Amino acid sequence: MLSTSATAMNFYKVTPVKEWTCNNVMNYYCEELNILKKANILDDIKKNLQKVAKVNSGFDATCRIKVQELIDNWKILFAKDWVTLVKKIHRSSRINKKIEFVDDSQKRSLDNYEQMDEEALAKKAKLDVEAEDTNPNANLVCDKNRFRLLILQHTSLSNSNQTSHETNNLVEEKNTEEFIEMKQKDFRDCGLEMRPTMRLADLSKELNDQNKDSKLNRDLCKLLNGRNKSICAKFQNIKGDIEKIRHQIEKIDNTVKSLEQRNDIEGSEFGY
Hints:
- By secondary structure, the chain is an all-alpha fold.
- The longest helix has 74 residues, at 196-269.
- The radius of gyration is 47 Å and the shape is rod-shaped.
- It contains 9 helices and no strands.
- This is 13479_t:CDS:1.
């Protein structure tokens, strides 16, 4: 165990990360540092947690993630566990002091006083938590940080990271082209829900596909029109050739007729 003269930061330096729990932190502050006032202990815990969570604090990413989890839940967990811990410390201190009561009435009076004190303490802790819930600055990591933190009441930060990692693995199983072609049902199969922005993007994609189809149809119509014109021009050329051939046939017919008439005339002259 660390000596009572050690600073609060030594707890995070010498204690394994897996033992950074609310109970261990509370035990250290109350028993080793002998801090029994709620206002002091909660403020000191939060300040030191914020120091450890900084990137330049000297702690690795695993430590900072664990501290961030404690910061996210410190208002709920610490305020709840503190009353139980103080009860235990008060009870042990009464045993160590071996108080001798004059009579049972004095003992009952002291027990009633301590019971009322603990009830008032629990009520005050509850009011403090409710007051901090309505405080706009209660979720700040530190005073100089402009980013707010969401209090994760139902899931811890590690669970959220694990869920996000599993979801990313599901998405990564599809290649880039398939991801681009994903529809709303595909997102739901991966455990994702399409938000309005994603739905707009999906609608925009469908419109783009329709535009591509329309452009393809226009190009096809243009190609067909060009081919039709070409076919019409060839048909006109063939029609003109047919007309020329018809004229040539008419000339040949006229020539044949004239020759037949000349033969008839010459035959009549010679008496044939």
